[in-house]
Amino acid sequence: MPLATPKLAMSPSLVLLALVSSLALSCGPTTIEPVPDIPQTVDYDTVKIDYAGQDGVEQPQAGTLTGALVGESSGLAEFTRKTVFGTNEIMYGVFELIDRITAYPARQPQEGRWVWETPPRADDYLYLQIDAVDAETFSYSLRWGNSAQDNREIFSGWFTPFETADSPDDARQDQQGEGLLYLDFDAFHAYDPTSFEGKMAIAFRARNGVRQVRVGFDQFTNGDNEPLNAIYRYVQLPSGRGRLVFFGRGDFGEDGEPHEFFSVDAAWLPDAQGRVAARIEGGTLSQPVVVRQCWDASETIVWEESQPTRPLHDGGSPDACAATLRALTIDPPTYEPPNGRDPEVPEAHPSE
C-alpha cells in the first residue's frame, strides 16, 4: 500500500519573503550595510540541517513514500531528505525576512527597544519590534496587515544573545545560542485567503558545532491537503551526521478517515547513506506496520525488513548498512501527539 507524505504546494518561505516587498518599496533598496547597535539576529546557517552537504532550500517538498524492493530507490530516504529540506525552507524564510528588515534603520530607537515600521498605507503594513527583555534574552514580534489599525501578529518569539565561535573545521564562524519562534499562519490567512493556515513553532539550539532544531505543526495546510499535525526533531553533528525523529498524523494510506499515525527515526551520513525505522499504525490499518531499512549514497535500498513480513519488499542484509549506522540504536518510535510543551528548546547534547 502506498503511503503518501503530506504535500505543500508552495514553500512557506516564499510567503514570508513576500512580506518584505512592502518594506523594500517604502524604504529603498535592500543592498545596504547592516545597521549597528541592534541586537544580533540569528543566521539561517546557524540552525539549518544539512543532508549530504545540501540544505535544499530550492527543492520541492511533495513526495510519496512507497514500499520498495531492495535495489530500488528508497521512499523513506526521499521522505527524510525532503522533510529536512522543507524545514530548512521555512527557517530560511523566517530568518532571511528578519535580516532584510533589520538592515534598515530602526524608525523608533529607544533604550532596549528597536522598531521597524512601514509608512501608513491603505493596503500593506509591516511592523517588527525587538525588545531587550534582560541581559540574556531578546524578544521579537512581527505584525502584518492592512494598516496600523488593522493588523495581526504573524510571528513572535525570543532568542539569547548569540556568540560567534570558530567552527570545528575552522572554515567558518559559527553562532552559538538558542531561541524559540512561533508562526501564526491563520493570522496571515486572514488577510490573504490563498496562503497557508495553521500554526507552527520552531525551537533551536546551536553549541560547539552541534545544531538542534525542533519543529511543531498544528493544523497546518494550504487548503488542498489534509491538515498536518506533526513534530520534527533534528540533530546535526559537527561531522555532518544527521538524525531526524518525526511524529505525524495524516491520510498516509490515501484512503480517507480515520487517519493513520506515522513515526520515523532516521539517521544519515555526510555522503547520504542512511538508516531508518518507521512505524505506521491506526487509521484503517488492522495492525501496525514497522519498516527497517538502509540505503546507500544513491538512496538505493540495500536492506529492508518489515513487521509483518512483506516477502515482495524485504531483503538484503543489515551488514550492507554503513558501519557507522550499524552501531546506532534506531527503533521505530511510538507516536507522540503534539502538546503545548512541544517543541521546547533542546537540552544540551552529549556531543557539545
From TrEMBL:
Keyword terms of this UniProt record: Signal
Keyword Signal: yes
Region annotated Disordered, chain positions: 330-352
Domain of life, source organism: Bacteria
Chain intervals with Basic and acidic residues compositional bias: 339-352
Signal peptide: 1-26
Protein name in the entry: Uncharacterized protein
